[in-house]
Amino acid sequence: MNLAWQIEQYLPRQLLELVKDISGQAAKRGQRVYLVGGVVRDLLLGYPNFDLDLVVEGDAVKLAQQVAKTSQAKLLAHHRFGTAKLRYGNFSLDLATARGETYAKPGALPAVTPGTLKNDLIRRDFSVNAMAISLASNDYGELVDPYQGKSDLEHRLIRILHPGSFSDDATRILRAVRYEQRLGFELEAQTAQLLKRDIPMLDTISGDRIRHELELILKEKRPEFVIRRLAELGVLQRISPLLKGDGWLVEKFDKARRLKKPSQLPSLYFCLLVYSFSENEIEQLLVRLNIPAKLSRAMRDTLRLKTRLALLDTSPLKPSEIYYLLREYESMAIETNAIASDSSTVHHYLQLFLTKLRYVRTALDGEELKRLGISAGPEMGQVLQILHKAKLDGEVRTRADEKKLARSLSPKS
Ligand code: ATP
Ligand code: MG
Q1: Is there a contact between 260 and 268 (Cβ–Cβ < 8 Å)?
Q2: Taking 90 as the threshold, does the pLDDT of residue 338 lie above it?
Q3: What angle do helix axes 331-340 and 265-273 make, rounded to 10 degrees?
Q4: Contact 11, 19 (CB under 8 A)
């Protein structure tokens, strides 16, 4: 099968120019270059994907360096293990030296040796991700598909390449479900069986790697479906027995998407995922996933604040009361509770804090207070606090109001 037409059709002109430049230079060096992985899958499906991965039979770093020297593309980075990144205009593209991998033990990072395209494809996760397209001039556009990836695409199946795949690298368990849900595919029958058998192998994977896969899941358009499916398969429980992928989560993830910016979503989703945990229960998960400090604080705060929401749901509160109650929490924890709580009063107060109260500042500063006869130190601290509270509650509005109040508080008045 030849995909030259699809390449020309779907890739933006600039990106195509760079690809052609690379393959031309490679030919001069006697190297063959292929498009591989996600972009091949998506070209066949007709989905846009401008995240290009190229495999080079030969030294990818040297090739990238030469392309950078002789064209407008810039070499962004290169690594000793044979990968390089090129940028051209708004696009970037990854080049890798074709390689084979062997796993000394389950979950270990693989030992890597230079190899052919075929070696490079067999180390991949699923048949639909293990296809390549030749970019050489004599067979430009030819599909290389040694594992029936195209047939699996047509039958909408996620299939591993060999029975040891999940135990070699159990992150593939999470990846399989992510692609299954994203593409609306099914796990092929034997793959599904092996996936369930190998769920315990998740214990061989480091916290950082599991968290990274969860982050990728949380960047999907509808992560709640991936989470729900992971729960159904018993995968989620292996990461933490308390994690759930139920209807509540589906509803709240959906609400989060409607209300928040895309960049906030992954952290917010993490906080929602642990919403049913107790303050003690969360610690184990933070350790298991090696969650970074700021997100850990947000997740802990989410649960601490949850236990205090009842205080917001009683009699009417003054703005300053809301402020003092909420100021100690990470803003992400407040955002999460605003989405998680079903009380409209709570929602209103949390939003008020997030959009207004936390930004309220007094117009007068220390210098001006000194001129009004208030001395630096605890006295000034107290006056500033009184001014701030009065401003929060709308008792003072203008600079003149603040001056008047400050004067009345000055010992010399
Ligand atoms: P996406 O659209 O999610 O980016 P992708 O296929 O480009 O899909 P990447 O995570 O960018 O996925 O990885 C690029 C390629 O590397 C994949 O297509 C797959 O062939 C291979 N790959 C990634 N992770 C693994 C893994 N854990 N085991 C085997 N192969 C992997
Ligand atoms: Mg990719």
Answers
A1: yes
A2: yes
A3: 60
A4: yes
Q: Residue 342: which residues within 8 A CB-CB, separation 6 or more?
A: none
Substitution site in 109, 123, 129 for ligand 1 pocket (most atoms within 8 Å of beta carbon): 129
Q: Is 310 exposed, middle or buried (0-12, 13-18, 19+ CB in 10 A)?
A: exposed
Is the per-residue pLDDT at 103 higher than 80?
no
Measured from the Cβ of residue 248, the count of other Cβ atoms closer than 10 Å reads 14
Closest atom of ligand 1 to CA, residue 216: 3
Confirm if 376 and 370 have CB atoms less than 8 A apart. Answer: yes
Residue 55 CA to ligand 2 center (angstroms) comes to 13
- CA–centroid distance, 64 to ligand 1, in Å, is 21
**Mean pLDDT across the stretch 176-202?**
98
- Which residue owns the Cα nearest ligand 1 atom 12? 38
Cα-flanking dihedrals φ and ψ of residue 54, to 5°?
-115, 140
- Collapsing DSSP states into helix, strand and coil, what is residue 375? coil
Whole-angstrom distance, CA of residue 68 vs CA of residue 62: 10
- Residue 305 CA to residue 293 CA, distance in Å, equals 18
Sign of CA dihedral 68, 73, 76, 81: negative
- DSSP assignment of 285-342: HHHHTT--HHHHHHHHHHHHHHTTGGGGGSS---HHHHHHHHTTS-HHHHHHHHHH--
Compute, in angstroms, the gap from residue 180 CA to the centroid of ligand 1.
Answer: 14
Residue 101: pLDDT over 80:
no
Residue corresponding to tokens 């209807």:
247
Q: Which residues surround ligand 2, an ion (CB under 5 A)?
A: 38, 51
Cα-Cα-Cα-Cα dihedral sign, residues 159, 162, 163, 165:
negative
Taking the whole predicted model, whether its pTM rises above 0.70 is answered as yes
CA–CA separation, 54 vs 39, rounded Å?
10
Give the nearest ligand 1 atom to 175 CA: 27
The binding-site residues of ligand 1, defined as CB within 6 angstroms of any ligand atom, are: 37-38, 51, 53, 124-125, 129-130, 169, 171-172
The residue nearest atom 4 of ligand 1, judged by CA position, is 38
DSSP string for 84-112: EEEEETTEEEEEEE-EEEE-SSTTSPPEE
CA of 206 from ligand 1 middle (Å) equals: 18
